């Protein structure tokens, strides 16, 4: 097969023709062939599948029509015969054609038509005919009531029917066989007179009114029923009689009239009216159907509303009361809302007892409402059982207090997230603050309080207590930060005042020199101590500086640890430093200048932070965020303390400023100004103060070259001193190792002190960076 | 065991169960070193998950509260260098015993009973082989058992109905555990074994008790008190500073808010960057 098709394909003949014939053949085989009769099977086989073009088989023969031509058929005899209809009493004679019954005599085969005609009369008596059909048996007369005068007077008398009328009616009824339509049609009061042949007929005619069909019927039925009853007493009536009797007795003319009127109306509707009626009916149907659905939905809703509170109640081990009415349902709904709200609020109130009381009162109310016998809903009947099953399903059992304790069941007030958790996970979450530094601080505080990182018994109570502790610690940290800010502000304002009280605002260099002197004379005790410790560590190179930074960091930290081993107390330390700074500044003209600048800067930088700073409470979210940033800054500062080549912009600024300050007060002012970070400035001032002391103490002279350089630079581009400062920084480091070293130390000390407490010093910078 | 027919969670309900997990390690006895241990191993240790040891146990076989009614199996994930480092323990006691030389973190995965409908949860435990507290040298010399055991509570928030049923003393699985308890001759107080309560007093066998909890609470309360005191101090200081500030503001006015416009700062930043 495939090969031929291939050939066809190759020769461009297409594969179609090959397949078609085979299909045909197959089809034919399948087809049931009409069985040809009259041909032998062998012949049929010879023909094969092809249908013969001509019908070779004769169709079956049927009986042929009788033909007169061959005389085989003799027609039957018909004769017109007179008869008397049985129903008639007047002896009327009619004729009709009748066919003769087939005779048993043999047919005369030799006789022709004429002959037959000719002999017909003679043959006549030989024919037999059927009996006359008894038509009269169908001519039944209606049995109408008949009555004598006496009977009429006794039984059939009616107020609105006269004897004459009644007679006439009965006559008509019998005449028209109770065909009421005809009767009503023919009923004619005039005829009554004619029927009543008498002299006074004309007078009476006036009295007879025409009657409607119903009136006629009613009257007739009354009479007929009465007649029937008279003939056969009710008790002995057979069923048909009794049914007829009942029917006639119960005929209601009014209903019948109404019915007919309505039928009439219905018949006489216009098409539009019919249409309208149809649509109205449809609408009605729709409404009724929807109502069913609506009711079902409502029932469903009620069931659901019921289920939830019942669950709640039973969980709490309260008695179960079934809300039966819609009033109760609405009560329930409001209660649910209240509960929802309660949960949202996360009220730490003793919720269990509280809500229990609430519920109970609510229950009481609902019960009262129920007893008001408000209209019950349709669902009342079904609800209780449904609800009962639901609650059973939901609450497996109710536990007593002791059992709850034993099985560790609790009903926390806060929102629960479904699922499993371990208690200690929560602890970890609590101690993990937003920033790493904050977390560290909290952990440090915990260590300080001798609370191990892992609670030994993280039970519910312990966890709660722990959470309280951590929140307290956070509060403390916040308080410290705020305090630091406020004290910064105080300091700045003090500087302002000093400035206002007549110190020349632009006596920088001289004043600075004086200030240095003064600073030297009045160092704070704590400072001295620290300086002395760090001085020993000073070395003469940049490397030394960084080393000092490293060394200096831990050094003071240790000192501080002595005083206040928790990182939290660092604020105090920083405060201490600040006060020291204040002292320095009091005697320091340049310091004043710087501060004034700083002040302005401060005002500028911390526009938004100002409010926070001024307020004692910084516990809002922003405060926290700031804190975090501050911490980061603090971190950066730490880094700086260790490594001066810190790549961070701000780090550079800080360091630069510090360095510049160390060198020259003039310069300080400008970079500070540029830096625009009040808090940093504060710090810088502090550090500057230290640097000054140290330079004085150790009699290391300021590098003149650098100074002048810086000064010129400052003069030229007073706004962009940072880079210069940066350069200077290194120069300073090279040239004045001692001061640098001391600065390094100072940095370290301040950083550590700042790390936790005074982190806020960096907030300005932090904010700047954010912008 | 019924299929998790109902997944309906019971709102506002929380059930917890205490348990302990941890490890104990003991150095090899140099005289009697186990032969099968690799040469570099120095300790025999065991990591486990258990119920709270019950106080009435004095003998060798420590009794503990039943945890198998909520815990189906436990998977211990050891260090990768162990053969079959993931050990699944299908039935109590949930523990793995091994030898080793180093400390590492073991991931303990808890598979809960099917009724709970909960996903497995993981905890980490740092295996401890060496003593870190107390007289270390002495302990080393004595080859005392180094224990690192943590108390923990598993919290089922809004459990599904069947599980709630089970945890509160009913259910078929409860019967099953009871049956098991009977096998291990613990039938006497099988009911109480399902409890979430912890013993009221510590004793030799058990250090996890209400007494201990109380101590911890005291400790925390003290710490809270300490912090509160510090807050009070801090507040006092703050008030003083504020007062000072208010006075200064009276004479000096409030700090100027806007003197240097923003572009100045930017210039400063830029300058810093350029030069």
TrEMBL record, chain A:
SMART domains for this protein: SANT
Pfam families: SANT_DAMP1_like
Keyword set includes Protein biosynthesis: no
Cellular compartment(s): Nucleus
Alphabetical keyword list: Chromatin regulator, Coiled coil, Nucleus, Transcription, Transcription regulation
Biased composition (Basic and acidic residues): 685-696
Domain of life from the UniProt record: Eukaryota
Biased composition (Low complexity): 753-764
Single GO BP term: chromatin remodeling
Feature: compositional bias, Polar residues: 352-372, 379-396, 529-548
Functional note: Component of the SWR1 complex which mediates the ATP-dependent exchange of histone H2A for the H2A variant HZT1 leading to transcriptional regulation of selected genes by chromatin remodeling. Component of the NuA4 histone acetyltransferase complex which is involved in transcriptional activation of selected genes principally by acetylation of nucleosomal histone H4 and H2A. The NuA4 complex is also involved in DNA repair.
Name this polypeptide is given: SWR1-complex protein 4
Organism expressing this protein natively: Lithohypha guttulata
Lineage: Eukaryota, Fungi, Dikarya, Ascomycota, Pezizomycotina
UniProtKB/TrEMBL annotation, chain B:
Nucleus in keyword set: yes
Pfam families with a match to the protein in the record: YEATS
Disordered as annotated region, ranges: 171-210
Protein localization: Nucleus
Transcription regulation keyword on record: yes
Ranges in coiled-coil conformation: 210-258
Alphabetical UniProt keywords: Coiled coil, Nucleus, Transcription, Transcription regulation
Signal peptide boundaries: none
Domain YEATS: 9-170
Protein name listed in UniProt: Protein AF-9 homolog
């Amino acid at each position: 097969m495939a090969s031929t098709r291939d050939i066809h394909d190759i020769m461009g003949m297409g594969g179609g023709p090959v397949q078609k014939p085979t299909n045909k053949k197959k089809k034919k085989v399948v087809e049931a062939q009409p069985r040809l009769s009259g041909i032998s099977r062998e012949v049929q086989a010879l023909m094969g599948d092809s249908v013969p073009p001509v019908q070779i088989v004769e169709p079956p023969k049927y009986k042929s029509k009788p033909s007169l031509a061959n005389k085989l058929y003799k027609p039957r005899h018909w004769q017109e015969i007179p008869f008397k209809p049985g129903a008639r009493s007047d002896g009327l004679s009619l004729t009709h054609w009748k066919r003769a019954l087939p005779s048993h005599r043999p047919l005369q085969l030799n006789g022709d038509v004429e002959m037959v005609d000719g002999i017909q009369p003679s043959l006549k008596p030989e024919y037999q005919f059927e009996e006359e059909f008894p038509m009269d048996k169908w001519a039944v007369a209606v049995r109408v009531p008949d009555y004598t005068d006496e009977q009429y007077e006794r039984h059939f008398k009616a107020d609105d029917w006269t004897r004459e009328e009644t007679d006439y009616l009965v006559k008509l009824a019998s005449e028209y066989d109770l065909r009421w339509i005809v009767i009503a049609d023919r009923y004619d009061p005039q005829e009554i007179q004619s029927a009543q042949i008498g002299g006074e007929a004309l007078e009476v005619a006036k009295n007879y009114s025409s009657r409607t069909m119903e009136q006629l019927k009613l009257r007739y039925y009354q009479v007929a029923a009465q007649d029937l009853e008279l003939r056969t007493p009710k008790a002995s009536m057979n069923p048909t009689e009794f049914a007829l009797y009942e029917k006639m007795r119960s005929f209601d003319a009014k209903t019948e009239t109404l019915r007919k009127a309505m039928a009439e109306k219905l018949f006489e509707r216009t098409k539009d009216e019919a249409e309208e009626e149809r649509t109205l009916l449809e609408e009605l149907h729709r409404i009724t159907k929807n109502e069913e659905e609506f009711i079902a939905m409502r029932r469903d809703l009620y069931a659901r509303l019921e289920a939830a509170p019942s669950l709640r109640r039973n969980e709490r081990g309260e008695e179960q009361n079934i809300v039966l009415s819609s009033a109760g349902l609405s009560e329930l709904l409001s209660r649910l809302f209240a509960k929802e709200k309660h949960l949202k609020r996360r009220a730490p109130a003793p919720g269990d007892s509280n809500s229990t009381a609430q519920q109970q009162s609510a229950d009481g109310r609902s019960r009262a409402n129920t007893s008001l016998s408000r209209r019950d809903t349709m669902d009342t009947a079904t609800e209780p059982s449904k609800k009962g099953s639901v609650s059973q399903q939901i609450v497996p059992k109710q536990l007593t207090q002791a059992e709850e304790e034993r099985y560790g069941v609790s009903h926390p007030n806060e929102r629960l997230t479904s699922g499993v958790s371990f208690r200690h996970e929560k602890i970890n979450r609590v101690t993990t603050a937003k920033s790493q530094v904050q977390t560290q601080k909290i952990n440090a505080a915990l260590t300080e309080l001798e609370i191990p990182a892992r609670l030994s018994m993280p039970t519910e109570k312990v966890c709660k207590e722990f959470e309280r502790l951590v929140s307290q610690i956070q509060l403390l940290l916040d308080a410290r930060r705020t305090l630091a800010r406020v004290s910064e502000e105080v300091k700045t304002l003090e500087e302002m005042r000093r400035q206002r009280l007549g110190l020349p605002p632009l006596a920088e260099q001289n004043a600075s020199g004086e200030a240095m002197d003064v600073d030297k004379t009045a160092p704070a005790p704590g400072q001295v101590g620290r300086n002395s410790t760090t001085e020993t560590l000073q070395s003469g190179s940049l490397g030394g500086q960084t080393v000092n930074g490293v060394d200096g960091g831990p050094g003071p930290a240790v000192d501080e640890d002595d005083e206040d081993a928790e990182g939290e107390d660092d604020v105090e330390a920083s405060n201490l430093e600040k006060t020291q700074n204040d002292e320095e500044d009091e005697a320091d003209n340049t310091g004043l200048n710087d501060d004034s600048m700083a002040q302005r800067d401060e005002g500028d930088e911390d526009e938004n932070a100002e409010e926070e700073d001024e307020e004692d409470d910084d516990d809002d979210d922003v405060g926290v965020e700031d804190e975090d940033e501050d911490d980061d800054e603090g971190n950066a500062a730490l880094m700086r303390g260790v490594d001066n080549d810190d790549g961070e912009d701000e780090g550079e600024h800080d360091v630069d400023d510090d360095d510049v300050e160390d060198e020259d007060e003039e310069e300080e002012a400008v970079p500070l100004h540029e830096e625009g970070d009040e808090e940093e400035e504060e710090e810088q001032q502090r550090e500057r103060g230290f640097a000054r002391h140290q330079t004085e103490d150790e009699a290391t002279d300021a590098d003149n070259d650098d100074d002048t350089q810086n000064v010129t630079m400052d003069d030229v581009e007073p706004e962009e001193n940072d880079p210069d400062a940066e350069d200077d920084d290194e120069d300073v480091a090279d040239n004045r190792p001692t001061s640098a070293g001391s600065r390094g130390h100072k940095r370290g000390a301040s950083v550590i002190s700042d790390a936790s407490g005074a982190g806020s010093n960096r907030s300005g910078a932090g904010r700047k960076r954010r912008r | 065991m019924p299929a998790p027919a109902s997944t309906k969670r019971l709102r506002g309900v929380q059930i917890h169960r205490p348990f302990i997990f941890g490890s104990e390690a003991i150095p090899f006895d140099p005289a009697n070193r186990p032969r099968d241990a690799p040469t570099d191993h120095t300790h025999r240790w065991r990591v486990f998950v258990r119920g709270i040891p019950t106080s009435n146990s004095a003998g060798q076989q420590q009794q503990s509260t039943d945890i198998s009614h909520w815990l189906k199996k436990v998977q211990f994930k050891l260090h990768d260098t162990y053969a079959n480092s993931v050990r699944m323990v299908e039935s109590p006691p949930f523990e793995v015993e091994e030898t080793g030389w180093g400390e590492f973190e073991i991931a303990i995965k808890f598979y809960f009973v099917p009724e709970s409908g909960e996903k497995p949860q993981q905890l980490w435990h740092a295996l401890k082989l060496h003593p870190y507290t107390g007289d270390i040298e002495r302990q080393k010399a004595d080859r005392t058992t180094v224990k690192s055991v943590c108390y923990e509570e598993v919290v089922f928030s809004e459990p599904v109905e069947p599980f709630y049923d089970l945890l509160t003393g009913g259910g078929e699985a409860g019967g099953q555990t009871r049956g098991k308890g009977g096998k291990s001759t613990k039938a006497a107080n099988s009911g109480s074994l399902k409890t979430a309560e912890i013993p009221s007093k510590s004793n030799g066998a058990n250090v996890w008790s209400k007494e201990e909890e109380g101590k911890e609470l005291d400790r925390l309360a003290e710490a809270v008190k300490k912090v509160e005191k510090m807050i009070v101090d801090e507040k006092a200081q703050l008030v003083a500073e504020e007062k000072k500030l208010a006075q200064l503001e009276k004479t000096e006015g409030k700090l100027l808010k806007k003197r240097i416009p923003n572009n100045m700062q930017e210039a400063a930043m830029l300058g810093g960057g350029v030069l």
